[in-house]
Request: fold
Amino acid sequence: MKRTLLIILALVMAMMTLAGCGATYATDSAKSESGSYYDSDFGWYEGYDVEEAIVETVEEYNPDTDSVYGDTDVESSSRKIIKNRTMDVQTVEYDQFIQDLKSYVSSFGGYIESSSESGNSYYSSSLRYADFTIRIPADYYDEFSEAVGDIATVTYSYEYVNDVTSTYVDIEARLTALITERDSFLALMEKAETVEEILQIQSYLTDVNYEIESYQARLNSYDDQISYSTFYIYVSEVKRISTETSNPTVFERISSNLSDNFYDIGEGFKDAFVWIVSAIPYLVLVAVPVIIVAVIVRVAVKKSKKKQNGAEGAE
Reply:
């Protein structure tokens, strides 16, 4: 019985030894076939295939495979809002308005991005006009709008609000994925052993860096538009502020038209008087030759009549 147990025990040990050797052989065989082993420092197997590693990297970090556009729940306080406003204003004190406008822009921490000033024709009731493109910190958007209304009469105002939160978050996600992809390529570059491998990885790095710069430029543009609101202000110098309302009644229209007509008649007489007085030098230049010609003609007519009368008396 003891001999039998010893034989069985020996057989079990022999089988375990053979199994271990087989496993070791299989592992060694796998290593010898792939020529690699796992490197914990870099997270992949040494002796890697560069093309395979690049494909895996691109597939893992490609920002175009999925988009988070419209799928992000963002708190209202964190939303990315772009605000623009267009305003048409009139003023009878043009120079004072320009001075006050620039003062408000400075006090609100903004700046004038562009501006132009011109004068209208002599016969127009609007003497000078200007347009401004002004950037104001978004926190003072409403305050600046009210300030412009306080120093001039607003005849038209349009507000454009654009919520770019989803697009902004989507670009951020793509940018993060691209940066991660770039870091992976840089790690692969450290493991490259041949010039061909280096050039191949460098080509992918160039494309990734270009995309990173492109997405970063878009984010910077959004940040600028979000942090600074844009105002387009068109100002006209007028002699009389328009009194038109958006939905006037019949009596308001009659009153407004009568007022405008009387004003236009008065302005017409004024313009005629100004023109006559201003044209006196030209009238004098024209009148002198006319008077001289008239005198000569009159003298000639008198002489002609005398000759005729003398001839009739002789007969």
Notes: Residues 18-48, 65-72 have pLDDT under 50 and may be disordered.
